[in-house]
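Case 314 in the screening queue. Each case pairs one protein sequence with one candidate compound; here the compound is zinc ion. For every case the pipeline is the same: read the inputs, emit a complex structure as tokens, and attach any notable structural observations.

Predict complex for case 314.
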Amino acid sequence: MKQDILFLEPVFTHNVWGGTRLHNDFGYDVEGDDIGECWGIAAHQNGDCTVTNGEFKGEKLSKLWDEHRELFGNAKGVRFPLLVKIIDAKNDLSIQVHPDDTYAKEHENGSFGKMECWYILDCKEDEKIVIGHNAKTKEELEDMVNEKRWNNFIREIPIKKGDFLQIDPGTVHAIKGGTLILETQQNSDITYRVYDYDRLSNGKLRPLHIKQSFDVINVPAKSADDSIIEEKFSDDKNSIQQFIDCEYYKVFKINVNDNMEFTQDADFILMTVVEGSGKINGCEIRKGSHFVVTSECDAIELEGKMQIVASVSK
Ligand code: ZN
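Case 314 output:
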């Protein structure tokens, strides 16, 4: 029995900062003006995608991971390793930081930490993103936060559509309103909120996690210049660009302008179409399609005119 490709039905979340673009720009069948996240490839207790095709139609991705590990090259690990989301930030997201595996294991009931990366799908002109901070020592960091000197503390850098950013655990970060991103991350949901602009959610301040943040924030932050990887491709050629190769994943951008064929020997590949439409091995795909190319698939044939963000776990 074989299933080359698992197409997935995403899970959506309502968030104070969410909007309507997941419905309007991506055509997802989801209502509401506060839709913040589309969990496109997820096998997590807070969001578990359903397979929409083939022999495994109707099954949850987490169940396939548990019971049909052969689809994933018999990869090891108690949990599906990665999670791919599209995030529509209509308003600013809270300033936050994630722990690494060691800290999360000790303080969050054996959970994984979170390394993540962002591909900027769209943003306003002259947009900025929060990455890193300006404190030079741990003491200065604690002073800035305790004294609420947010403008001194938070470091913003300019971004544009097509930029790619790697966010290591311990990096202070936040997406600003008007930005649409595709996030590839470790399969974890552990976030420490440093500052939430004193906003109310259902009449209440959302909890902050100042102690944990002080524990995990890297001081000093990595240089701002090293934070952005620029996209390079020409509009009329097929190309594959590797954005990152880190401890947990590799992420690529595939630009399809014509037929494109390649063999693959990864355990499995996660893919999201972020622009255009076409086919993969004869199956129709379009902007917003999320799928897993399983280890049963030896060769991939892409046709059409589209852009795909792909990742493999390590
Ligand atoms: Zn994050």
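Case 314 observations:
- The first helix runs from residue 21 to 24.
- The radius of gyration is 19 Å.
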